[in-house]
Write a structure and sequence with these properties.
2 domains; elongated; 8-stranded parallel barrel; 6-stranded antiparallel sheet; 13 helices; single chain; TIM Barrel; Immunoglobulin-like; alpha+beta
Length: 640
């Protein structure tokens, strides 16, 4: 994952709120030299991490896990930013204090003052105020945003007993069967020009009409800056304000559920960035790295693709925090799944600069993901767990057997196939669409895709590098879009979940690295006008038809299939248990190809995407496919 890096800022503050879990992590590995405090006083029973409201909001209890510190105080608008000392727990790990005489209708800003000098926001906050970035958030996106408080410096946390509540409209949502899951991945910032949940909600019919039954949002928790992909995380329990208010996000999720669409959050718990209070609280300034006594972080990163500061998931404090984060979004926002960024990085096996060593079988990493998956399934048995893993197939197969879904990146192969190249620089073999090619025993083991936020856009590649022969030229817009149609016909025909990156269904052709839009991480225009182009609209329709066929016809979940996806002529044969059989064929060459289609039976076969049919009198059906010609045949008409 490419992530934007921002320098460490020690004046950052965070908002604290309550967590539903009140148990403290055990002080093992990396928690500092904690000897306990025989004169300490434990927090009141039932007080949670962050802020716990009592007395109808007239009082709060602040509770911070900070082992090894000499003193902690809370400062905020309720005490004119003058330190109120916090009490230390008997085991020496927690600091807490009760503040009374509060106005329950008022939103208060606060920070923690640690060892008399370091100001940080609360790691458990649900909202932060950022003097550097909040002024750039339009009032239409986040109405009535609390002004940054006078007398404060850096990022601050807030709490608000009287915050607007939300009444859920859909309380009985049934998540789509993972075998039928078709996920639409999007970045709120680029999908709608307003970068707001409100507009996204108003645009949901576009995705619903496409037929996708899940939306995967790139990270929405607080991240550094505003204009970002969101992978530079700093506050894991605060919704980033650049996209809207908590209730606007809940309204979006509710609207998705009303349309039968699940919501999956992309989340980063492999590392954190410099403005995270977890990073700042234990920092080795001399060596510019997390301190040796950090309860959460490694001093040095363990793998070659690390960008932020790596969380040590073998530490109990990290596990405790991670599970609290998981639980918070699941219960507060009713989301349906997580896609875990860089899940292969949850390891303490140091692979140095070697990608191969990082991908090698790691039993400790398996055990960790089994633990986290069991935790989430214990909270919600039907919750989706999707991992950006990319380890050896044998390791992924273990996790797939337990219901976790691995990201299956076929972008390189799909590019070569659509471009019509199979040279030494790449392979156009699409066999990876089938779970058995990965050594998995379950169709839900991998969630395959041809495009993602990390990959170059297929149609851009077609226009720049497409092969040609005579008048047939893949660089031509209409021809390139037709190649995208053929790719979609094959991708959605294979059993198991699939993923679409935003606007691939209309042949988005602005390069991911386009300099005119700010490069790889820059804002990309949505180009909604593309839908007025008949060729692009036809691609959208093919996507829509194939997605609906996949969801509505059991044959696309069959365990009885054959395929050959390695040559220029590619085919998939699916034999259904209900009497419906499917034959998908396509010529990925730039010249005509005489082929034999081995139908499972003679008779009438319907060409579902054209409305035509053929009469098959010999199961070894001979025909010639033009370059780029493809068909989705079935012996009974497929249901849309």
């Amino acid at each position: 994952m490419i992530k934007r890096f921002f320098p460490l800022i020690f004046s950052v503050v965070l908002l604290a709120f309550f967590s539903s879990c009140s148990k403290s992590p055990k002080n093992t590995g990396g928690s500092g030299n904690v000897t306990g405090n025989p004169n300490g006083v434990d927090p009141p029973s039932g007080s949670s991490d962050g802020v716990t409201f009592i007395n109808g909001g007239a009082s709060v209890i602040f509770n911070l896990y900070a082992p090894g510190k000499n003193s902690v105080a809370v400062i905020g608008e309720f005490n004119s930013w003058k330190p109120t000392s916090m009490k230390n727990s008997v085991d020496g790990t927690r600091w807490w204090v009760e503040i009374d005489n509060l106005d329950p209708t008022k939103e208060y800003a606060y920070q923690y003052l640690i060892d008399g000098s370091l100001k940080v926001a609360d790691p458990y906050t649900h909202k932060v105020l950022d003097p550097s970035n909040d002024p750039s958030i339009p009032a239409l996106v986040y109405p009535n945003l609390k002004p940054y408080p006078a007398g404060a410096t850096g990022i601050v946390s807030t709490f608000w007993y009287g915050a607007p509540t939300y009444t859920w409209q859909v309380t009985n949502f049934q998540r789509p069967d993972p075998k039928k899951l078709v996920v639409y991945e999007l970045l709120v910032r680029d999908f709608v020009g307003t970068h707001s949940y409100k507009t996204l909600t108003d645009t949901l019919n576009y995705i619903a009409n496409l037929g996708c039954n899940a939306i995967e949002l790139m990270p929405v928790n607080e991240f550094e800056g505003n204009d970002s992909w969101g992978y530079n995380s700093n506050f894991m329990m605060a919704l980033d304000k650049y996209y809207g208010t908590p209730n606007a996000y809940k309204t979006f999720i509710d609207a998705c559920h009303a349309k039968g669409i699940a919501v999956i959050q992309d989340i980063v718990l492999e590392d954190q960035f410099g403005s995270s209070p977890l990073v700042q609280m234990y920092w080795d300034a001399a060596n510019n790295q997390p301190a040796a006594n950090s309860p959460w972080f490694d001093q040095t990163n363990m793998h070659p693709d690390a960008v932020g500061y790596q969380l040590n998931h073998q530490n109990k404090a990290t596990q405790y925090f991670t599970e609290n984060v998981m639980k918070y979004w699941m219960q507060e926002y009713h989301i349906d799944g997580y896609r875990f960024d860089e899940a292969k990085g949850y390891t303490q096996v140091n692979s140095g600069s070697s990608e191969a060593a990082w991908a090698a079988y790691d039993q400790s990493r398996i055990a960790l993901w089994e633990m986290y998956n069991n935790y989430m399934k214990g909270l919600d048995p039907s919750f989706y767990t999707i991992l950006e893993y990319f380890a050896v197939n044998q390791e992924e197969a273990v996790l797939a057997t337990q219901g976790m879904m691995m990201w299956g990146n076929l972008s390189g192969n799909a590019e070569q196939a659509e471009l019509s190249y199979n040279d030494s620089g790449g392979s156009w073999d699409l066999s990876g669409l089938f779970y058995d090619s990965w050594g998995f025993n379950t169709p839900t083991g991998n969630i395959c895709y041809f495009e993602s936020h990390d990959q170059e856009r297929l149609q851009f590649k077609n226009e720049q590098y497409g092969n040609s022969n005579g008048s047939y030229n893949i660089k031509n817009l209409a021809t390139g879009l037709q190649r995208c149609e053929m790719g979609a016909a094959f991708m959605f025909s294979s059993p198991g979940p699939k993923m679409v990156w935003q606007f691939g269904e209309r042949g988005y052709d602005i390069s991911i690295n386009d300099a005119g839009t700010g490069g790889r991480l820059g804002d990309k225009p949505p180009h909604w006008e593309y839908m007025s182009d008949p060729n692009r609209h036809h691609l959208y329709q093919v996507y829509s038809d194939m997605i609906r066929y996949k969801i509505n016809n059991p044959v696309f979940n069959t365990a009885t299939y054959t395929y050959n996806l390695s040559g220029a002529y590619k085919f998939i044969q699916l034999l259904g248990t209900d009497g419906t059989d499917v034959e998908v064929v396509g010529n990925f060459d730039v010249i005509p190809s005489a082929v034999t289609i081995n139908f499972p039976a003679t008779g009438t076969w319907y060409d579902n995407l054209t409305g035509n049919s053929i009469n098959v009198t010999n199961t070894a059906y001979q025909t010639t496919l033009a370059p780029g010609e493809y068909h989705v045949y079935s012996n009974t008409l497929l249901k849309l």
